[in-house]
Amino acid sequence: GQEKLSCNPKKENGSHVVLCELGNPMKAGAQITVDMELSVSGLEDMADAITFHLQLWSKNSPSSTNASVTVTVPVEAEAVMELRGNSLPATTVLPTSWHRVEGSQRVEDHGIKVEHVYQLHNKGPSTVSGVTLHLSIPTQLGGRILLYLLKLGTEGGMNCTNVPDLNPKQV
Questions:
Q1: What share of the chain is helix, strand, coil (3-state, %, to 5)?
Q2: What would the pLDDT profile of 24-54 be if each residue is shown by its tens digit?
Q3: What is the dihedral of CA 118, 119, 120, 126, to 10 degrees?
Q4: For residue 101, which of 25, 37, 109, 133 is within the disulfide window of CB 3.0 to 4.6 Å?
Q5: HSE on the CB side for 106, CA within 13 Å?
Q6: Is residue 78 a contact partner of residue 128, using CB atoms and an 8 Å limit?
Q7: What is the pTM (predicted TM-score) of this model?
Q8: d(C-alpha 58, C-alpha 37), whole Å
């Protein structure tokens, strides 16, 4: 019949060991099938697989022929990332007769301020690290300035690399 095993986890020589009692006494020649479901946490920094060493042994007859097998299980982390973004103001219309004021250091003399905000969310179920977000911002169109980048900021422990030339005219 099917029975639940009594298993006890312990640490032995720096390794995590789980000992399961299959039954005592057993008759000679008995055959037992065991299905085990293991729940392992903290796999974020693991390689692409985890290895289990399984061994069957008897307390009654110590022997070097005790059955041993190694099982390697692939580790696959899954996380759904979501990128949200918006512009403030959402819509900007430039008047047809508008011209920037050359030489001015005031931002409003060079155009209408538009702020773009992007948020990267992890919807799980796994945690993520080492995520790269590549964001391309068109700064020119037809040889003319389309967007003039004043500053770039991040929150939440993120870093920016290959930052475009910000505020080259020192506005």
A1: 0, 30, 65
A2: 667 777 777 777 777 777 666 667 888 888 8
A3: 180
A4: 109
A5: 4
A6: no
A7: 0.50
A8: 22
